Amino acid sequence: MIGVRNITKTFPARSGPELTALENISLDIAAGEFVTLVGPSGCGKSTLLDLIAGLTEPTSGELTIGGHPITGPGLDRGVVFQQYALFPWRTAQANIEFGLEVKGVPRRLRAERAREMLALVGLTAFAHSYPHELSGGMRQRVAIARSLAYEPAVLLMDEPYAALDAQTRESLQEDLLAIWKRTGTTVLFITHSIEEAVYLGQRVAVMTARPGRIKRVVDIDLPDSGAGDPRSEPEFVRYRRDIWELLHDEVRAGV
Ligand SMILES: Nc1ncnc2c1ncn2[C@@H]1O[C@H](COP(=O)(O)OP(=O)(O)OP(=O)(O)O)[C@@H](O)[C@H]1O
Ligand SMILES: [Mg+2]
What we know:
Strand order of the largest sheet: 6-7-8-3-9-10
Low-confidence stretches: none
Structural class: alpha/beta
Largest sheet: 6 strands, mixed
Number of strands: 10
CATH architecture of the domain at 73-171: 3-Layer(aba) Sandwich
Bound molecules: adenosine-5'-triphosphate, magnesium ion
CATH topology of the domain at 73-171: Rossmann fold
Number of helices: 7
């Protein structure tokens, strides 16, 4: 579904040599797969997401979506940015309806769907509030609801839960997994939380310090923990430690 082949991305520097943000990155994500991406700050995670979103162009290499070259943004990809990107002149509900409008969903269905999504993220009472009337975490929940509302084939999420409190975060993680299972969406999810990466991902891609390369892709295979919390299972703890060690070397290398 997503093909990243030998991608290098450099930025012109203010002074001195140009900055290599990504160096020869390759990553294939199958349709319906949930991949999480971790790496030290500044290693190029957001840069990679912007490239797949079609917002920037690589310096070299090939990017494909569903086998076709990526030439720009599209409704096949929903993006939740690291910084909230809501339309300030639209209410929470109208923000969520945006993608549905572009898709040509009739007004009544749009409103219904937006209200469902508002309920999902716990913001029913704020349907008619504007972004400046919402807290940071609430804005991010609207952005998440907006990207989920029109069920794009691919969801690209850049640390969407970083600003949320632990309870909201865990409940949205579960909602996201439920939506993913129901819709078969392909998800690329960036996070700084190793626990979140292991909990959500079928695979966890670990990046190196700048210039960003893929250091290792770890397959997550957790036994069914039944009604219990998978986070406290010994396998979960082992994955968390393994990935922590992979990352720790990188954070040190980057200092
Ligand atoms: N538009 C730009 N122009 C110049 N340099 C940029 C630009 N965007 C990113 N960079 C540089 O590319 C590198 C990677 O940045 P990026 O935002 O992708 O990192 P990140 O892994 O998402 O970090 P974080 O975890 O802190 O969000 C950084 O050194 C950054 O300064
Ligand atoms: Mg980033």
